[in-house]
Design goal:
InterPro entries: ARM-like, ARM-type_fold, NACHT_NTPase, P-loop_NTPase, TIR_dom, Toll_tir_struct_dom_sf. With 509 residues, the protein is of the alpha/beta class. The protein is built from 21 helices and 14 strands. Helix 2 (47-58) packs parallel to helix 4 (76-87), helix 8 crosses helix 11 and helix 17 (417-430) packs parallel to helix 19.
């Protein structure tokens, strides 16, 4: 029996996307014939599957072989496996399953494998070719030296797989439900979260007077729309105003302006490595969850701790944490730099159960690094750094309108009559707001369309635009249509000229 360079308590982990199951299974059979200790996870669906990959697969791996394809690179599951292997200083052997003339790794996968020579498994249909590549893989596994001891001791200080599971959860929560249609969603990267630094002294005095006078919600809402002196700030720069080692920031925002989306966005950006890599963990806590149902009263002399909050809010209720996991969590929690995102102070401050007030006021709000969100008039916190979510800026609105307009223009010029008709109907609903010259001419061209539904929809859209459509170029176009061979086009042009009325007559003169 041949001996490998793999220690008795270690294995070779195979990291692959499920679309590569067939070829990887073939490679596995060859490696098993050589008594190679293998570990692979065929289930890649749940968080528990990922935990198994990290806690068992990566942690006990002497070598991690990654089987690279475009689907592998797109997989959040595979990305976390390999990035965690790199973080734990595991030996990585890349295996290419795709022709490099067609595809090469990019983004995160390239950054991990760019200095490593991959084994080319893309064309192994012949048994001899497969055998040759497997031998090369075995040689690479046995030939690589073990990880130096000084690196291993450093690895022990790195974040655990439990923190990686939380990061994975944030990455999966990367979309926002459409407000009008919950069945639809859009990427959180497309949300507009505009922040401003607030000059607070005068503002705080006004707030105190309003709170003390018990004004109605209508007046409070009006107050929350009043803008004091503010300076725009990017999300990644919100800690620049913090003057000491403590990073405590209070973020205001009107009801519905996007405070929760702001917290979700921060967690996602941290998870994908775009902001604040100095934090080992970001913990997002919806403060409205501090209820008696979720946190029932404990026996006398015992209280909830921050780690209880972390366990309950960041791990799913059906996710099993073993005794080893609990110990690991405790150690990592106390040895890590953690940022707390405390969302919705205004929603809980008047309703928090008495026995949870200490958890809120003396623990969560006393953490050295936290961001707390609240509506302004419900606030009684005193943070030296205060920001405000201001909603849409003029640039956001302009860009969004231009994007929508371009979609409609593309639709009315589509080869499909159904899509052309739908595009016209969408423009009809928006009326004069979409009455640009390009839209008007596009709709007029459709008055002579071969499809009856398209012609009717185009006419309706132009009618709804009224005098806004009466540009010189549009009037000339309509006059030309009066001589068109198509009866519908002639009649529509006549009716539209009547709708445009006086303005059309003026332009013609």
């Amino acid at each position: 029996m041949e001996r490998t360079a793999i220690p008795a308590d270690k294995h070779v982990m195979l990291s692959y996307d499920s679309n590569s199951q067939q070829i990887v299974s073939n490679i596995v059979r060859h490696l098993q014939l050589r008594r190679m200790p293998l570990w692979l996870n065929q289930e890649k669906e749940t968080t528990d599957d990922l935990k198994k990959s990290l806690a068992e697969g990566v942690e006990n791996a002497a070598v991690v072989c990654c089987f690279m394809t475009p689907n592998y690179e797109k997989s959040d599951f595979c990305q976390l496996e390999l990035q965690y292997a790199q973080k734990r200083q595991k030996r990585i052997i890349p295996c290419m399953l795709t022709d490099t003339k067609v595809w090469e790794p990019s983004d995160w996968l390239e950054s991990i494998t760019k200095d490593l020579v991959p084994i080319d498994f893309h064309d192994v249909s012949e048994p001899s070719a497969m055998q040759e590549k497997v031998e090369e893989l075995i040689h690479r596994i046995e030939d690589q030296p073990p990880t130096p001891q000084h690196i291993l001791s450093h690895v022990d200080d790195l974040p655990s797989y439990l923190f990686e599971l939380i990061k994975y959860k944030y990455k999966q929560n990367s979309r926002i439900e459409h407000f009008m249609n919950p069945t639809r969603s859009f990427p959180i990267d497309q949300s507009y979260i505009n922040l401003a630094i607030v000059e607070t002294k005068d503002q705080q005095e006004k707030e105190k007077k309003l709170r003390d006078s018990h004004y109605s919600d209508v007046i409070m809402e009006a107050f929350e729309n009043i803008h004091g002196t503010k300076t725009s700030v990017d999300i990644k720069d919100i800690f620049t105003k913090c003057k000491d080692q403590t990073r405590n920031v209070l973020v205001f925002g009107r009801a519905g302006v996007g405070k929760s989306t702001f917290c979700q966005y921060i967690a996602y950006q941290w998870a994908i490595g775009m902001v604040w890599p100095e934090y080992d963990l970001v913990v997002l806590i919806p403060l409205c969850s501090l209820t008696a149902d979720r946190y029932p009263i404990l026996p006398a002399g015992t209280n909830y701790s921050l780690i209880d909050i972390l366990r309950k809010e960041c791990f799913s209720f059906d996710q099993y944490l073993s005794e080893k996991d609990e110990k690991q969590l405790q150690e990592q929690f106390h040895n890590s730099r953690i940022l707390w995102l405390l969302d919705g102070y205004d929603e809980i401050v008047q309703n928090v159960p008495t026995y949870l007030k200490s958890l809120l006021n003396d623990q969560l709000l006393k953490t050295s690094h936290h961001i707390v969100t609240s509506r302004r008039y419900m606030n009684n916190l005193s943070h030296s750094v205060q920001l405000e979510i201001t909603g849409f800026t003029d640039d956001n609105i302009t860009n969004t309108c231009l994007d929508v307009l371009q979609i409609h223009l593309t639709a009315i010029n589509h080869y499909s009559s159904v899509i052309r008709s739908n595009g016209c109907e969408a423009l009809a609903k928006m009326g004069e707001k979409e009455a640009t010259n390009e839209v008007i001419i596009g709709l007029m061209n459709l008055l002579s369309d071969t499809n009856n539904d398209v012609r009717n929809s185009a006419y309706k859209a132009l009618s709804n635009m009224g005098e806004k459509a009466a540009t010189s170029e549009a009037i000339i176009k309509l006059l030309n249509l009066l001589g068109h061979t198509n009866d519908y086009a002639r009649n529509s042009a006549y009716e539209l000229l009547k709708c445009m009325g006086e303005k059309a007559a003026t332009n013609e003169q």
